[in-house]
Fold this protein.
Amino acid sequence: MTASPVDSPRPGAARSTDPQLGDLTDAPFELFESERDVLSLDIIGEALRRMGQSVGLDELVRIIDEMGAARVREALSRILFQPADRVVDPFGLDVEFYDAVFPLVRWVHDHWFRVESTGLEHIPDAGRALIVANHSGTIPIDGLMVVTTARLNHPSHRRLRALVENFVYHMPWVGALFARGGAVRACQENATALLEADEAVLVFPEGVKGIGKLYKKRYRLQRFGRGGAIKLALSTGAPIVPCAIVGAEEAMPLIGKVSWLARPLGIPYIPVTPLTPLLGPLGLIPFPTKWFIDFGEPIDVTEAGADAVHDRVLVNRLNERVRREVQSLIDRRLAARRSIFFG
Amino acid sequence: MATKAKQRAGEGSRVDGERARAASSAASRVAITGACTYLGQRLIAALERDASCEHIVALDIARPLTARTKTRFVRLDLTHPDADETMAATLEADGITTLCHLAFLGFPSRSGAWAHELEAIGTLYVMNAAAAASVHKVVMSSTTMVYGPYPDNPNYLSEQHPMRGLRASRWVSDKVGAERELARLAKERADIITTSLRFAPVVGPAYKSLITKLLRRAALPRLMGFDPLMQFLHEEDAVAALLLAVRGDHPGPWNIVPEGVLYYSQVLKLGGKLPLPLPRVLAAPATTALWNLELLDMPGRFLDYFRYSFCADGSRAYETMGFSPRYSTRAALESFFAARSSPARAADLSEAS
């Protein structure tokens, strides 16, 4: 370890090639910056790093490299950790992460749920659009499948931005993963900003009422919030594309909810599915049902004008119209479906 | 006799001040509270060179390093109960048109009561003095931290978003209190232009605050499972925004933020920091314990700023005020990490901006 003179600027090149060593040389000066610092976190960090070196963590990594796992390790570390050089978009979408986990999600899409989608051409190739879908399936996996099917099958392979419920961001890890994958917390400000940036935004106006409804109420659309989606479309001039997801309801039938334990965890409920009593948390693995995702004709609400946002009766009427549109897409698909598992 | 003479002299200078104010609407006469803060010293340095500024009054408990010929130093302690009267007299005597209120603490104080007197009550006194002296404009430095770290924050907070602060942190609450005092002045006195600049956390080679101190550490706590998006403003951009607000009239609150965001984990990587992953249930009491033992400058509740995003939407300042940051969040951090921490020297502060 070499000590650099106090006054000389930190060598930038040495830093970028070996940041670890760079910090070791810097540490002694950091420590004495203020008397109060002496016993604080810096020392713990320094000690941990030296311990890591003495037990040969570096060596272990080198051996793994020689075993030919270099590429696996590289890929894993780029997925699990966030390299500093990676650029994220203003809402935290990390394209490299998205592309890295995409094969896994694609497998779920192609082989687990065998998703069939129709009407994807109704989503415009470019420019803003608001996709309004029914929400179901206990955990918000339906949004993931809609995003995946659009990425795979849309003529221009659009990346949709899904708006997800608040509670996702209360939960450790889940919120961080969702954000890196391009999901955004559902609120009027975020949705407006995304639409004004000409993104295609996926919303579930039913919200928690939708995914949290019991199995006996399957495929019956809940109230579409307070018309927030309609107001968004009116104020940003985005066309509304109705979307019906069939199959997600049976993937994880909700037979009960535990609320008392959920509240301290900051989530709306702990789902009870047929397999939860047997398998515990593993009961949350969804059944491999057959999924259909149908997109309908776009509904243009711009003729009403941006001022119509304040016309509450009109907003509610349009809201009801979109809800009926989604419901009829669902009903048509349900009438044609023979089996939950084979379509 | 002597006191009478003094009074007359005082009246004389007050008349002079009013005449000066009436005569030169273009030339500004600026008073700065917290003149010894980084922003205060940089502002004085810039105004010393600025021909459109003819007089500067530096108000603080010590003389700023960058004071030159235009600057008159007046010792003022904002925690003193007469601060408003003393200050109003100075503002009137010197014919001040623009008042810059920058007297805020960069670090949470262990003496919460004193900090409250300085920041919240001190701002009340400053606003009283501004109203009594009928200045043309009040510019105040603030922070985006006033919005508070909450999971239900929109990704980009607008200026209209409620300032929820952080109730358990007196440091943040006092800054919200200062904003309220400014808003109250704006409501009561339509003739005074009030500007508040809500800076994203400022970093740079010379700027000192809790954030920069934490980022100078070799290891930083990371709350397991949380990775908020963050904004960091370069000190040069903060000075540039302050100068814009002093030179032009831009009423209202403004988010002064850089372009681009980074995840907290990326910030740690960029600085080559060792992350200490801790579950929040452990991290908060541990941090509070260290704070109580005076080993750490950060109270436990402050950890929420490493848990949830509080990024602000700066488009209004870009479009209306003409603020264009030279550094993105990433560039600001790179500049900060590349520079060694050193005490600020007058030469650094006088650099051209």
